[in-house]
Amino acid sequence: xxxxxxxxxxxxxxxxxxxxxxxxxxxxxxxxxxxxxxxxxxxxxxxxxxxxxxxxxxxxxxxxxxxxxxxxxxxxxxxxxxxxxxxxxxxxxxxxxxxxxxxxxxxxxxxxxxxxxxxxxxxxxxxxxxxxxxxxxxxxxxxxxxxxxxxxxxxxxxxxxxxxxxxxxxxxxxxxxxxxxxxxxxxxxxxxxxxxxxxxxxxxxxxxxxxxxxxxxxxxxxxxxxxxxxxxxxxxxxxxxxxxxxxxxxxxxxxxxxxxxxxxxxxxxxxxxxxxxxxxxxxxxxxxxxxxxxxxxxxxxxxxxxxxxxxxxxxxxxxxxxxxxxxxxxxxxxxxxxxxxxxxxxxxxxxxxxxxxxxxxxxxxxx
Length: 367
Description:
There is one protein chain. The protein is of the alpha/beta class and 367 residues long. It has three domains: 120 residues, Helicase, Ruva Protein, domain 3; 165 residues, P-loop containing nucleotide triphosphate hydrolases (Rossmann fold); 41 residues, no CATH class. Helix content is 48%, strand content 8%. The longest helix has 26 residues. It is elongated and about 100 Å long. The C terminus is likely disordered.
């Protein structure tokens, strides 16, 4: 909608996992390195956790896109399933016959073991990826653990990657899942972006969208974006997208800090019962990253696999008149009271003369 106004070729802060917009921060590079190492070395269980909107699914897309033809994988993005449906989803992803009418768990396990043994003989690798794994029930997590028993004396035949939010860590700490926890060979927790990575993230996405020379966000505006988003990429996208829309609506060509603060308040107030968020304070500017390192990071290759993603909520952006604050309302009330007192004093002065006798107004009222 605002692309032409800012000279952009496309929306720089969309929700789709477009590989051209992938920004590999230091933490994302480390997480991806853990995933690649675990898969190549057949480590068995790999767990990646992170809060909402830290880019976990994007990492999975990057991993799966980079796999060669000698690697088979099954992807499950909706683990809230019954046991048979969960196993059937795995089998379908690996090419096993899993017709609902004749599904048998014993037949499935026999077929899966035969498939894994055949792949191992041919030097192929097989991966099971479960996204949103915090939604796995305890029973399904136990089923996943049992699948890891398919191994030889030398190596694992099935590599299992569980990716989920913090709640997955909480589940794995439960005593009843201690056997699964002990089998996790590689564990990594994704942290949100820092102030400098947030700046580079915003500039990277703008550059990919066609804004190569002029700045659309002031440095102070990006500071506010970081303070309001906490460095979570999904929130950064939401705030920046709405800030550009607000700038377009008011015919501006630069997003400054006050506009981002207003945008954050509007986003917060758009939810039922929401209150305007306080203005964010600019954060200290981090030390600059060497140009060569920044350029290498910005040029990091991205990728995406057509995996269903959770729908993004539409956020309304509007302009609201500012209500007077509590101090202003207090002065208004005090002024009104003062005017009323003065009016009463004037009436008394007209009703009594200065020598103590009743004035003409009061005299006439009595007689």
